[in-house]
Amino acid sequence: MGVDTMLRITVFFVFAATWFGLDAQARVWTDSTGNYSLEGDLVAFDGADLVLQKADNTLVGVDLEQLSEKDQEYVKSKEAKDTLDQKGKGEHAWEMRNGLKVIGKVVDYMRRDVTFRMFRGTIYVNDQKFENLPEVYQKITPLVAAHFTERNITDRAGLFDWLRRRRGEPETFTTEGVLLELPNGNHYAVPFFLFSDKALLALKPGWDRWAASAQEYEDQQESALYLQSQAQAFQEDAQRTAEFQKLQLQLQGYTAGLFSLWEVVLYPNPGTPGTALSVVVPGRDSRQASITAMERNPGYSVGPVARVNRQF
């Protein structure tokens, strides 16, 4: 392996550490008997059940009571809560079949009847006037009608034309899908058939179990928890893919001499626990590198900054 290749690999890993950070070592979980253990990260907990993500990204559901006392105490600790809160931050973008992207957090599965009817020229959806529906549902309900009737219904006008032909006869469709919590905090039912095939890979696997346990509250809660974990893992994987692509572009930019690598020394501000840090970040100049370093390390102030020598 030549020096050039070695240096490029070194720079690649510098960027990898810069963009992805250094992941904390996964926790080793032990069962109450002490005979079995599992290594993984805590990704969800609802008070009775938890979901762990192994190194290969597979998810494992565990009852809290099955764990050792030490692990049970950890799950209930502030440290575990802060970890879960951090994982839950950020907006999730779900791609629809028509290319639209909806920002929202998946919270549960749903099965709901949607009834359309017209009375004296007014469209009603589940006994609510169409005009009084939330804007999200004003966009979704025409697509529900279009899906089940196989008609070209895309808006209120399409609904009006279809229902006028029915002469007041109501029509009910049963929809299956997920509940999305949008940034405004409200929950909306979104049918599976509106999502892209890629999104369904994350959303659909637990549906059969949820549907089969319609009368069992605890089973449905477990299914909902698994769904949330699967959706979170899907979004994190998509983010890693996007960051890796960005990483490759950064590496190409460095190789082409568009910017340099900078070593930035950071000192903790008063009240910030920790010691001085030395980080390597990309930047066109020392000022940009300093800003980047502080953005990625809140609570620190910039010390000496030095350009990393380019050797190829």
Automatic annotation (TrEMBL):
Residues 24-80 form the SLA1 homology domain. InterPro entries: SHD1. Signal peptide: none annotated. It comes from the Bacteria. Coiled coil: none annotated. Transmembrane segments: none annotated. GO terms for molecular function: cytoskeletal protein binding; identical protein binding; protein-macromolecule adaptor activity; ubiquitin binding. This is SLA1 homology domain-containing protein. It comes from Bythopirellula goksoeyrii.
